[in-house]
Design brief:
The chain is built from 12 helices and 17 strands. The longest helix is centred in the C-terminal third of the chain and has 31 residues. The chain is elongated and about 70 Å long. The chain starts with a strand and ends in an 11-residue tail after the last helix. One of its GO terms (molecular function) is monooxygenase activity.
Length: about 400
């Protein structure tokens, strides 16, 4: 019997476990993989993420490793015109943004947890609820035959969440675009400034951001190509990298192609860009009885604003704060009102999640879709005036745990 079971040891799952531990609730995290997974290579963390990490007590560990960035450049591949984009923050303001290794973020969160909190190689096969002594209890069956009972279950199991399906949420939809990411390594140093660089062409967008003086995170996003880069190439990262450098991005600047060429092949990944319709988040069943979702299981979105992981960290803090209200004076999790507790959590998260899903999708469309003069004009306006306003949503503070 467990107090809380969290399904998935990604950013949302580990952050939620840390939040619950901070308020005095022990959680068991089930992860189907054999260890922490680092798919995605790197992640941009904006001010809202740093506020959440501060509430979790780990922001200093990461901020001491990674340097913030304050500006970037966007170049039109066809015209070579370049615009400067300034991010509305000053050094030491607390509204900084950094790009960090995803695996380092996971490791920092995992280090905050008590021993044996994470159970690896634990694949969920079924979930059901039943009433015991007047309270709803979740029963989870694992592939190895283990049966676990829990007062609360939180689905943090990603875009294709089994918990989200159990709740009846609609299946995430394909945006019609796909993305390839990787990490370039320069053992002798790359010598580039710590700035975000992006390049745009008709239905294509690419960019890179140094993580430190030897590693650079890069990405390439395009409309789904005629052949499925992920499947038709058998998942071979070398073929995927060559497809970007030799075909899809062949007209992009030599600097970008050189960075792609320096990729550590173990970091190259391809994936379709999925999202959940915002009205599913507003109107759907995000919680039922003592089961709910967080992170990508609730609000998968395109990466155009870099808010997927940031929002997952917010979810963790908000959920931890609400569950804290259900702890008895004896330190036990009361199940009588847990359903209303989870409903309050969802009321706080629904509209913000739906807004950011919509903003991310529209941001991607403006930055990448179409080549008419109207679309190019709108893109210029977006980078000059609208992007900073859109990113103002990233200065949101989800509050403290206690």
């Amino acid at each position: 019997m467990e107090e809380v079971v969290i399904v998935g040891a990604g950013i949302a799952g580990l952050a939620t476990a840390v939040a619950l531990d901070k308020v005095g609730v022990r959680a068991l995290v089930l992860e189907r993989a054999e260890g922490l997974r680092a798919t995605g290579t790197a992640i941009a963390l904006f001010p809202n993420a740093w506020h959440a990490l501060a509430a979790l007590g780990v922001s200093d560990k990461l901020a001491s490793i990674y340097e913030p960035f304050f500006k970037g450049y966007v170049t039109d591949v066809k015209t070579k015109a370049t615009q400067e984009v300034r991010y509305d923050a000053s050094k030491g303001s607390g509204d900084e943004q950094r790009v960090v290794h995803r695996k380092v973020l996971l490791e920092v969160l995992a280090e905050e947890l008590p021993p044996n909190t994470i159970r690896f190689s634990s694949k969920l096969t079924s979930i059901e609820t039943q009433v015991e002594q007047g309270s709803s209890v979740c029963i989870l069956a694992l592939e190895d035959g283990t049966i676990i009972k829990s007062k609360v279950v939180i689905g943090c199991d990603g875009v294709h969440s089994r918990i989200a399906r159990w709740l009846g949420l609609g299946t995430p939809v394909d945006s019609g675009r796909s993305g390839i990411r990787g990490l370039a390594v320069y053992p002798q140093g790359h010598g580039l400034n710590h700035e975000l660089r992006q390049f745009g062409d008709v239905s294509k967008r690419a960019g890179f951001m140094p993580l430190n003086n030897k590693e650079i995170f890069w990405f390439f996003v395009c409309k789904a190509p005629p052949k499925d880069i992920g499947a038709d190439m058998g998942g071979d990262p070398n073929l995927q990298r060559r497809e970007v450098a030799d075909n899809l991005a062949k007209d992009f600047p030599p600097l970008y192609l050189d960075i792609v060429g320096h990729s550590d092949l173990s970091t190259v990944t391809w994936a379709p860009l999925m999202f959940r319709y915002p009205w599913d988040v507003i109107l759907g069943n995000l919680t039922r009885a003592n089961i709910t979702v967080a992170g990508d299981a609730m609000h998968p979105m395109t990466p155009d604003l870099g808010q997927g992981g940031c929002l997952a960290l917010e979810d963790a803090v908000v959920l931890g704060r609400h569950i804290r209200s259900s702890i008895s004076k004896w330190g036990e999790l009361e199940t009588r009102d847990i359903s209303s507790t989870l409903e309050r959590y969802m009321r706080e998260r629904r509209w913000r999640a739906a807004m950011l899903i919509t903003a991310s999708f529209l941001s991607g469309w403006v930055q990448q879709d179409g080549s008419s003069w109207r679309t190019r004009f709108l893109r210029d306006i977006f980078y000059k005036f609208l992007l900073v306003r859109v990113l103002s949503a990233s200065r949101y503070n989800c509050g403290k745990l206690c």
